[in-house]
Amino acid sequence: MPHARTKLAVAFALVATGLTLPAAADAKTTLVEVQATDHATLNRLEALGLDVTYEGDHRTELMLHGPEDVQILKDSGVPYTVLLDDMDGANDARLHTEGEQQARVEKGIAPLSTLPTGRVAYRTLPEINAELQQLAATYPDKVKLFTLSKPTLLGKTIYGVEVTRNVDAKDGKAEFLLTGAHHAREWPTPEFTLEFVWDLLLNDGTDADATRLLDKGRLIAIPVVNADGFELSRTLQNEQKRKNCRINAGEIPTAEQCAASANSNRGIDLNRNYLPFWGGPGASTSFTASNTRGEAPASEPEIAAMIDLLNAHQVTLAINNHTPDQRLLRAPSSSNEPDVVADEQVYQDLLERLARNLPGWPAGPWTDVYYEASSTAEQQAYYAYGAFGFTPEATPGFSGTQTFHPPYQNVIDNYLGTGTRYAGQTMRGLYYDAFAAAIDPSLHAVIKGTAPAGATLTLTKTYTLDSSRTAFTTGGPQEVRALPNALKSTLTVPADGRFEWHVNPSLRPSQYDDRFIDESYTLTCTAPGGQVLETTTVRLARGQVADRSFCTQGTVSGTVPATLSLTLGAPAAFGAFTPGEARDYSAATTATVTSTAGDAALTVGDPDGAHPGHLTNGTFALPSPLGVAAGTNAPAPLPTTLLTYAGPVSNDAVPVAFTQAIGAGDALRTGTYSKTLTFTLSTTNP
Ligand SMILES: [Zn+2]
After folding, report:
1. What pTM does this model have?
2. Which of 31, 176, 436, 633 is most buried (most C-beta within 10 Å)?
3. How far is the CA of 392 from the centre of ligand 1 (A)?
């Protein structure tokens, strides 16, 4: 990149001519002013990586973070004057006074402000994190505390809250993302984010809008994305810090390194480190530039963690809060994006609707009303998910030391649209309208229908996002890299089996023209036990509602009627009995058994009351009883149990053996001795 080469050449020239750079220990933030206000000059200063902080009608301010910045401005040839040589400490007295007033408010001896919480001073990072925990404890059914998937470079946990009714349910509500402090010194942004959380909760049940939003939508609020940088700025160790704590590519810094004044202008601009268009216009390779892109797309853990969050949710609208430039911005944010995006009219209409909360503020694509920036949060929201991303630049109108965090009364006034400076210009109104747009199904897509209660529906999609055409390493080729991205979000089917899932369209806005890329989600339906019941695809355009039933295919069923069936084979016959001769006669038949019962018994008995168990011929009966057995079992007199079954059985052919003893002295009458027996198949466990 030209910027890096320029700086290298300058440093060399200085050494060669014997000039000396200020020692690192002298590094400080210096406020300067240039008289130029034309866009060409300002864009050039921005492109050089300088921190242009205030654009007035007749003059422009820059903050120079150390000697490298001073030299770059000198080399630019743009004349400047120093307004404040060392900005450190300039706000100390004011912040001390505000802090004392807050302490009096908390003791009940000073009046609350008109904010939902009544605060009168900026929160510190520990206060913000404690407040998030307090919210979750106070509203356990409406607020869930979570942490991002990765800590900051210095190991700080990044906290957020989800806010909705029945917050633990994976219920498919549309999600609205509100983030603060991508840029460290922009202290009003965590204030706005937290006040809006309280606003919804305190008005739930009494205000129709707040109640409906918590019924239908889910707010994801992350007050401080850049926790390392915010801590340094808010504790006044490096009050005008913008970026994160990265000092050198690929190295984890220590807290001491990040706080060192020699490193005050190092770091990565977290709003230049997302995936789409990474490395494009308005993103510098220099680690000391105000808009440093980082060594690779999502190289910074804070942004990798934000992408993890977005990939696992269905955020339909995202607001990335900033100060102080009096704008409401949408994509495109860089000139290598399509001039006309796929959702041009819908996106622009929505912007204009939201901008009514900020009358008089320029609203439009960055490329029309602001400077350029690449791999911003809006680009991630829009090109990775088809979600509508916006950047407000709030609490405008201040310069010098107060540029990024003016006196706290301005936070109060801009949140509510009160006072003279921000009369009618309300961040609260912006958030309420944005949340309402996030849950408007005509602006996203819906999958609804039926599925087994308790089943998990999972939507996945894998694809690549393109970087800008850039050299990824110094001296490397200019190239566009395809950056893999994978989405995975889930819903649990409610007890009534009916679900409604508010999702982003599966069709994705092209990074190159005004068309959509024809993509579908893969939807997997999983039983509560983890068994995958169905995998299918769902293709959704913006505004589309797909009404489908899932997990209904692939099962084969049959019903078994209760059955106890017994079939007897051919009648058994002993043949001829010879009188006067002792002999055992035998005969056989089969019984065929089918049972669906849990157990069964095959018994045989003789219903004849006169000569039970004996063959008869008219009124004559044989003296010896008839013996019966199943298979080779020992013959037994009637009644007897032939066989038992421990479970169901089908078509079991049971050989039934009959025996009849005739004694030498037995008197036999001419004719046929016979008996009709009763075979019974019975169960105690049908
Ligand atoms: Zn910012």
Report:
1. 0.78
2. 176
3. 9
Distance 613 CA to ligand 1 centre (A): 104
Residue 274 CB partners (closer than 8 Å, separation 6+) = 297, 298, 303, 306, 307, 375, 376, 377, 379, 380
461 within domain boundaries:
yes
Residue with tokens 């979600």: 387
The answer to the question of residue 93 being in a domain is: no
The domain boundary, picked from 397, 413, 443, lies at 443
pLDDT in tens, 545-592: 999 999 874 444 344 556 777 777 777 888 889 999 999 988 888 888
Centre of ligand 1 from the C-alpha of residue 285, in Å = 18
DSSP code string of 88-112: TTTTHHHHHHHHHHHHHHHHTSS--
From the CA of 465, how far away is ligand 1's center (Å)? 24
Tokens of 88: 């450190």
Residue type present at position 214: L
What is the CA(267)–ligand 1 centre distance, in A? 14
229 C-alpha vs ligand 1 centroid, how far in Å?
12
**pLDDT tens digit string along 299-315?**
999 999 999 999 999 99
Query: How far does residue 278's CA lie from ligand 1's centre (Å)?
Result: 17
Which residues span the domain enclosing 73? 2-84
**How many C-beta atoms lie closer than 10 Å to residue 314's C-beta?**
23
C-alpha 420 to ligand 1 mean position (Å): 24
> Distance from the CA of 567 to the center of ligand 1, in angstroms?
88
Is beta strand 327-330 parallel, antiparallel or unpaired with respect to 363-365? Answer: parallel
662 and 601 within one domain = yes
Confidence band for 608, pLDDT divided at 50, 70 and 90: confident
